[in-house]
């Protein structure tokens, strides 16, 4: 596997970095800037585009004792009495038991 796979690329024509490294990055799907700021903990692909790992982690627990969103039902409804409920994590980078995945969206889109 290439060690530069997830590194910001450099523009061939100008020799400048396409993704600034000043705390936030700009998304450039299909080489078109949309002016969104992406937090540093959200990965972009080598071309600076959003992909699965932007919103989802590749590793982590599949189940958690904390809900990912308020109306979420336990993933283990038939568990023996006394067993704590377990909820799917969806491997998301951010979620909140009350506000759900909104906090994930707000990281780039801001509060609506």
Can you characterise this structure?
With 112 residues, this protein is largely without helices or strands. It folds into two domains: 1-55, no CATH class; 56-112, no CATH class. The chain contains two helices and four strands; from the N terminus they run E-E-H-E-E-H. The strands form two sheets. Strands 1-2 form a two-stranded antiparallel ribbon. It has a two-stranded antiparallel sheet with strand order 3-4. The radius of gyration is 18 Å and the shape is elongated. The termini are far apart. Residues 8-24 have low confidence and may be disordered.
What class would the helix/strand composition place it in? little secondary structure
How many DSSP H or I helices? 2
Number of strands: 4
**What order do the helices and strands follow?**
EEHEEH
Topology:
Blueprint: E1 24-26, E2 37-39, H1 52-55, E3 63-64, E4 87-88, H2 102-109
Antiparallel strand pairs: 1-2, 3-4
Short description:
This protein is 11% helix and 9% strand.
List keywords for this structure.
112 residues, little secondary structure, two-stranded antiparallel ribbon, 2 helices, 9% strand
């Amino acid at each position: 596997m290439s060690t530069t796979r997830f590194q910001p690329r450099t523009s061939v024509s100008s020799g400048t970095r396409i993704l600034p490294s000043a705390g936030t990055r700009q998304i450039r799907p299909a080489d078109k800037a949309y002016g969104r700021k992406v937090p540093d903990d959200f990965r972009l692909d080598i071309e600076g585009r959003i992909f699965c790992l932007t919103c989802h982690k590749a590793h982590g627990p599949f189940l958690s004792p904390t809900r990912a969103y308020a109306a979420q039902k336990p993933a283990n409804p038939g568990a023996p009495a006394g067993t704590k409920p377990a909820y799917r994590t969806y491997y998301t980078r951010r979620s909140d038991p009350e506000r759900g995945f909104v906090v994930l969206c707000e990281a780039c889109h801001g509060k609506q």
